[in-house]
Known about the structure:
Elements lengths: L3 E5 L3 H13 L3 E5 L2 H10 L4 E5 L7 H11 L4 E5 L4 H9 L4 E4 L4 H16 L8 E4 L2 E4 L5 E3 L2 E3 L3 H12 L7 H9 L8 H14 L6 E4 L3 E4 L10
Parallel strand pairs: 1-2, 1-3, 3-4, 4-5
Antiparallel strand pairs: 6-7, 7-8, 8-9, 10-11
Helix pairs in contact: 2-3, 4-8, 6-7, 6-8
Amino acid sequence: MNKTILLVEDDHLMRQLVADYFETEGYAVLEADNGERAIEIIKSRTLDLIILDIMLPRMDGWTVCRAARHVSNVPIIIVTARGHEEDRLLGFELGADDYVTKPFSPRELVARAKALIKRSGDAGHAPSETLCQGVVQVDRISHEVRVAGELIYMSPKEYDLLLYLMNNSGMVLSREQLLLGVWGYSHYGNLRTVDTHINRLREKMGRCADVIQTVRGFGYKFNPSGEPQKNG
């Protein structure tokens, strides 16, 4: 079955160019030229990926990203001419999984989309369906995460980060290791990307947030017991 991508871009020529590249690769492409239309499609269709421009009429891409995360965990790639660090971090804080700055290569965008869709679906091929450590339970098939029995919604990248931490439980992982292990590359050149996602995970875990611990001067580790880190 073909994967379905929603392409949200108000520039007709750019939208047509990118759509042509994806359709050539066998993807089904839905198009929206404004934020309101994008939300309608997100709520009504099953999607495998959203490619989202920021500067849109009626509703900007930030608002679309935030709204999408309330109803779906579909991977999101933000595409924009705004390449400032603050913009990238805002995108990640709102739940985006990747960030591409214009001008860009359509072939590279397709490659990133393929990698993101593959990572999003890899859990179905995991050797064990359920991973349980302390109060945290992860279903690798459905991507459902429960903390102390409560179902917690997570974006694909938050899920990937949590799973990576749990698969390396008890190990101290540097920000560089997490950036490479979860994102698969380090082209952002900013380790705050990791900090942003760690903070989001902790917020969602509420009173159980202590299972993700900061090891000062080194990085982070997953501790199923939630007991304070002892130094020295």
